[in-house]
Amino acid sequence: MKIAPNLSPAKRAPKFEDGSSLRIPSLQILNQDGSVIAGATVPDLSRAQATKIYSDMLYIRMLDERMQSAQRQGRLSFYMTCTGEEASVAGTIAAFQPQDMAMAQYREHLVLRYRGFTTAQFMNQLFGNLDDLGKGRQMPVHYGSRELNIMTISSPLATQIPQASGYAYGQKLKGKDACTLCYFGEGAASEGDFHAGLNMAAVLNCPVVFVVRNNGYAISTSCAEQFATDGIAPRGPGYGIKTIRVDGNDILAVYAASVEARRIATQEQRPVLIETMSYRLGAHSTSDDPSGYRSKQEEQIWRDKDPIQRMKNWLIAQCWWTEESDTDLQKSYRTEILAELKLAEQRDKPPLGDLITDVYKSVPTHLLEQFQELEAHIAKYPDHYSV
Amino acid sequence: MANSTVREIGNEPKTSKMNLLQAINSGLDIAMATDQRVICLGEDIGQFGGVFRATSNLQKKYGNQRCFNTPITEQGIVGFAIGLAAQGSVPVAEIQFADYIFPAFDQIVNEAAKYRYRSGDEFNCGGLTIRTPYGGGIDGGLYHSQSPEAYFCHTPGLKVVMPSNAYQAKGLLLSAIRDPDPVIFFEPKAIYRASVGQVPEGDYEIPLGIAEVVQLGTDITLLGWGAQMVQIIKAAELAAADGISCEIIDLRSLLPWDRDCVAQSVTKTGRLLISHEAPLTGGYAGEIAASIQQHCFLSLEAPISRVTGLDTPFPLIHEKQYLPDYLKIYEAIVATCNY
Predict the structure, then answer these.
(1) Is A72 a catalytic residue?
(2) In this complex, do A196 and B76 lie within 8 Å of one another by their Cβ atoms?
(3) What percentage of chain A has pLDDT greater than the value 90?
(4) Contacts with A, B 5-24, CB within 8 Å
(5) Residue A85, helix vs strand vs coil
(6) B:53-82 residues touching chain A, CB 8 A cutoff
(7) Is A173 domain-assigned?
(8) In chain B, which among 155-174 make CB contacts under 8 A with chain A?
């Protein structure tokens, strides 16, 4: 048992460390034009998986565009896009197995798409209708699916981080070839739960992979106002966690890092931290307007680094993709999304009884009484309370 | 008092003399022995067995993967335990003092309590139990004395349990651990060693949500929970010498609470006194009083009386004056009966 920290060789002068010596470089494999950087190793990725990853990124871009418009048309109360960060999410989830639990923040709906969440399921949640797995209880984009091993999203930031450590510990006790994948943003990393979760994961050797999407902004607060250091990655070694930083707009870099991260988590039974460097091209949510806090020029710099365009360039260079197939796919996604949107907004809302179920496993007497009073009141004024 | 609920056990069980801590330890031991999924975690609970020794020998018996120390991070302990429960384990997390539960407030109130509801029952953390010692009487001052139960009783999705003696502690703890919803289990640390009684050595459960009528009476109903029951019973003895017959109810579970039991008693006695150590304003007595006056309005002979701590932080030097002790309860009984 280690009693005290290892002592470094003694110093003879009072020189302080400020972390500036710990500059963590970013892994990059692809240039924006789709060519491979000299000396970089391309990860083993089949044509089938590469095109699936790309198609899912494209799908989410189409979904985000359509649903953002739907919100502006007043058909939807709220929406959040993943625009600009598609590779950070697709490249990570693609390296994991279906038995791995994924716990996300709220900008990672690509995880659901990758595991087979259907367009109808997205729409049912967004419109909180009868077929929403969450029974219409949460705001739009709070998806979740037991079948797909994707934990239901919760609005409070960073709460999923210590939970992911605990979930992974449970997987480890069961001796499964499984780990937990946990996403959060660089802003959420300022929460106490970040420290709690990473420290516990390291001390208790939990097979969990933390992915911090550094997208530059927490609503309007830029990185410069969020932390004084070089991003989040330098914190990893402080906890004793193996850490890597990647170009989050480079699908091959994200994927290569994630494959190795999963191997470390499951085989070495210890946590890993990945920081994906990217940019939130859209607003924080439909309730936000970035023009008040950042410039169009800054946005353009990142638009030119579009992760979807970069992957498409690479796929075309591989002769695995064409502009024609791209156009066709976009068209078919748009058609499908619009059709399901129309169906979902017309579907009935969940029954009133869902108001009181699932608070507890069984409905307690006091809650049943409150509900009966409510029903009697609504029966008196049915028009006022109609959904 | 300790033997008053033996009726809840089926056959004559083999019992032995235990204090409340030993009963907790025995309950944890049985929970871990009967269910491989049960895991104990918290600060200093491993080899050391916890600062009060509630988890003594559990690590030795079940290994350091199922009973282990955590770093000092209450929000981490509860968050970690929620993850364990969601994964299918049955975590029993210890928060060393209830005064230190507040860093975990978000994880308890926003996460554990809402896990099942917000996911439409796709996920739940019902296996979670949080054990924590609460209450004054140990010269603990502001931060080793608080009774924070009301904060949690205000949160749908949680169950809140507070045993008052060794027998209850073990039976209620086993129920809490096996309950399908997250439970906060407040342990009365002032009587951890003082409360001694015959406790079955084997496995038994006391159902949650059901109060215990400790003593039948006709003039006034006295209601409390946890360590406060000691003061209430003592006050009832003083009142009996004056010819006042007190019915005593130990609530045991605060959320959900056994309103029918209390209402039935108050309908009979016409008077109710509720006592807790926590401050008056926003205390759980207020909720009970409101509910009982609604259900027993025509039976009430006097205003419902609350004997509680003052609306101050928990004091140190003036702890004795602050606490709602048996003399204050006795005076309130007399005043209520003479109203």
Answers:
(1) no
(2) yes
(3) 93
(4) none
(5) coil
(6) 65-66, 68, 70-71, 73, 75-76, 78-82
(7) yes
(8) 156-157, 159
Q: Are A247 and A35 in contact (CB under 8 A)?
A: no
Nearest residue in B to A145, CA atom: B122
Topology match between the domains B15-200 and B212-337: yes
Strands, sheet with B129-134, edge to edge from the N-terminal-most edge strand: B67-69, B38-42, B90-94, B129-134, B183-188, B159-161, B253-255
B34 and chain A: CB distance < 8 Å anywhere? no
Q: Closest Cα to residue B166, out of B334, B339, B1?
A: B1
The model's pLDDT over B239-261, given as tens digits with 9 standing for 90+, comes to 999 999 999 999 999 999 999 99
Tell me the CATH number for domain B15-200: 3.40.50.970
Q: Do the chains contact at A196 and B87, CB–CB below 8 Å?
A: no
**Inter-chain CB proximity B83 and A152 less than 8 Å:** no
Question: Which residues between 125 and 184 in chain A have a beta carbon less than 8 angstroms from any beta carbon of chain B?
Answer: 132-135, 137-138, 142, 144-146, 151-152, 154, 156, 159, 161-171, 173-174, 180
Q: Point out the catalytic residue in the list A47, A72, A137, A293.
A: A293
- In terms of Cβ atoms closer than 10 Å to its own Cβ (0-12, 13-18, 19+), residue B110 is middle
Q: What is the pLDDT of residue A3?
A: 64
- Long-range pairs for A350-359: beta carbons < 8 A, 24 or more residues apart: A350/A128, A350/A129, A350/A130, A350/A132, A350/A135, A350/A136, A351/A130, A352/A378, A354/A135, A354/A136, A354/A137, A357/A135, A357/B121, A358/A135, A358/B116, A358/B117, A358/B120, A358/B121, A359/B116, A359/B117, A359/B156, A359/B157
Which secondary structure element, helix H or strand E, spans residue A371, and what is its range? helix A365-380
Are residue A374 and residue A297 in the same domain, yes or no?
Answer: no
Nearest to B116 among A133, A169, A358 (CB): A358
Give the SS3 label for residue B86. helix
Chain B from 263 to 292: CB within 8 A of any A CB: none
CA atoms within 13 A on the CB side of B279: 12
Write the single-letter amino acid at A163: Q
CA–CA gap between residue A341 and residue B259 (Å, rounded): 47
Quick check: B11 pLDDT over 70? Answer: no
The closest alpha carbon to A305, from A357, A359, A257, A248, belongs to: A248
Evaluate whether residue A5 is within a structural domain.
Answer: no
The distance of B90 to chain A (nearest Cα, Å) reads 10
| Count of the separate structural domains present in chain A | 2
Q: How far apart are the first and last CA of chain A?
A: 62
pLDDT of B10 above 80: no
For A221, phi and psi rounded to 5 degrees? Answer: -85, 120
A156 to B81: CB separation less than 8 angstroms, yes or no: no
Query: Average pLDDT, stretch B88-117?
Result: 98
Q: Is A114 a catalytic residue?
A: no
CB A59 within 8 A of CB A113: yes
Tell me the β-bridge partners of B16.
B199
Strand B67-69, strand B38-42: pairing: parallel
CATH number where A279 lies:
3.40.50.970
Q: A-chain residues within 8 Å CB-CB of B87?
A: 101, 166-167, 170-171
Host domain of residue A385: 351-387
Contact B39 A204 (CB under 8 A): no
Tell me the CATH architecture of domain B212-337. Answer: 3-Layer(aba) Sandwich (3.40)
Would residue A195 show up in a list of annotated catalytic residues for this protein?
Answer: no
- Spatial separation of the C-alpha atoms in residues B263 and B286, rounded to whole Å: 15
Catalytic annotation, pick one of B43, B74, B205, B212: B74
User: d(Cα B266, Cα B262) in Å, to the nearest integer?
Assistant: 6
- A366 and A229, same structural domain? no
pLDDT, tens only, A71-120? 999 999 999 999 999 999 999 999 999 999 999 999 999 999 999 999 99
Q: Where are the domains of chain B?
A: 15-200, 212-337
